[in-house]
Amino acid sequence: MSIVKNEAKIRNPLIVGIREQLEHRALWMYLLCDEAAKKGLPAEEYVPQAIRRCGVYQGNLLKEKGGMGNSLKGLKKALFGFFAQKVFEMDILRCDDDHLDIDFHYCPLVKAWQKQGCTDEEIAVLCGHAMCGDRGIGSCFGAELDLPQTIAKGGDTCQLRYIHR
């Protein structure tokens, strides 16, 4: 029996459509990792680095868009707007120049991996790899990302905590 709880409450057709696009991205990631593993290439040797590079690329674009330097208010403005908040069913708990605390109540990436029949362990590993992108984004704002809890590891929420140290 799976420990992963991940059911959407918001069912607006537009939000569902956006979620499906994110699921497709997660499906690509899973299938690439699966095919590489079949060829003896361990994902941990290349996936985290590649996804972090993608995050840094995106983070640099978002930093320009946010227009607030390293302020985590700029990150919230650029990345965690209205639609993102609905797609991930987010609660913004704190947002100031040095802290951005967000709880996600739903994850379309986890849902994609569940649909593929991934085990809890596989979902946790894939999530860890995917979060390298979020870490890369945070680094562009001079912030580190803490993850006290994740849906992929059986938590009720994904707790993203960006912080300037």
Write the layout of secondary structure elements.
Elements: H1 13-38, H2 47-66, H3 72-79, H4 82-87, E1 90-95, E2 99-104, H5 108-115, H6 120-140, E3 144-146, E4 158-163
Helix pairs in contact: 1-5, 2-3, 2-6, 5-6
Describe it for me?
The protein has 165 residues and is an alpha+beta fold. The chain is built from 6 helices and 4 strands. It has helices spanning 13-38, 47-66, 72-79, 82-87, 108-115, 120-140, and strands spanning 90-95, 99-104, 144-146, 158-163. Strands 1-2-4-3 form a 4-stranded antiparallel sheet. The longest helix is centred in the first third of the chain and has 26 residues, at 13-38. The protein is globular, with a radius of gyration of 16 Å. The termini are far apart. 35% of the residues are buried.
Provide key terms for this protein:
single chain, 165 residues, alpha+beta, 6 helices, 4 strands
- Percent of sequence in beta strands: 5-15%
Main pleated-sheet profile: 4 strands, antiparallel
Count of alpha/pi helices: 6
Overall SS class: alpha+beta
Percent in helix: 40-55%
What sequence of helices (H) and strands (E) makes up the elements?
Answer: HHHHEEHHEE
Q: Note the gap between the termini.
A: 39 Å
So what's the overall shape? globular
What would you say about this model in short?
The protein has 165 residues and is an alpha+beta fold.
